Amino acid sequence: MFHYLHMVYQILREPGLAKTKRHVEEKTGKPMRSLINTGNSLPDNARIFVGSLPELDFPLKSHPRIVPCGPIISEASPISESDPKLASWLNNGPTIYVNLGSLFKLKEDRAVQLAKGLNMAIDQLERKTPDGPYMQVLWKLKKDGHYDATGPKSRIRAAFDDKMDSDRVRIVDWLDSPPLAVLQGGNIACSVHHGGASSYNEAILAGVPHVVLPFWTDCYEYANRVEFLGIGRRGARKHQPVFEATELSEVVVEVINGKQSQTMKQRSLELARLCKQNGSGPEIAAQGIVKLATEGAVVAAKGTPQ
């Protein structure tokens, strides 16, 4: 909450905002619209298309202008088509998918903590089911700084014991398949992500439980949504936004094979089915925009002011 208030304060105090406002109004003769006042100056027929559904959010009242479309995420070809080799590897066992988004980069010390936490979780899960199946990790890592994540002397490799040697842990900086294709591959046990909107919605569409490691602003909102909806847990609560190996491992184990894990999986699948029944979010938004544009063109052709 403090972060949001500080952000609004900074926007209002931004020295360039007043200068920009004067320039726009001098050149156009019209008042400049900003994020602060846009909502109060919209035409009567304006609509706000949002990439969500009431069932995917907190129980709040919705404004009549808002059109819930469902997750607005590009559809993905099956991973068996986009990356057959990775699809084959994923079929080897239940896989923890780690993707902390496109913006956040991990320094080596934090990456090592994450690796230790995942390794501890795998060991605990396999002690519960000694006859298998064996767990895997697919980690899309964006590094902050220059360090070795996969080489024989890597601290991260050492944190996974011998699991990288046996190809049970794969760490990459790029995947040919989009996240949705990976998640919909059918063998992802949970998605470890940062709480970004896309990561949240991709796991929702795939029906995969979440472990959220929030870093800033809306990431915490999505972490709270996950827990409110009963589809996962926040992975770093004690020292947030810094995560610690032991706490992370406990949360991953809880989500994959804890007392509430089956309920989380079932609820995740229910929300995925709900989104499928609702229809494609991008198509709903596009059709709504085309409809408004068509109506506006008809009115303009008649010369009738809106």
Automatic annotation (TrEMBL):
Keywords: Glycosyltransferase, Transferase. Residues 167-259 form the Erythromycin biosynthesis protein CIII-like C-terminal domain. One of its GO terms (molecular function) is hexosyltransferase activity. PANTHER family: EG:EG0003.4 PROTEIN-RELATED, FI06409P-RELATED. This is UDP-glycosyltransferase 89B1. It comes from Beauveria bassiana (White muscardine disease fungus). The gene is UGT89B1.
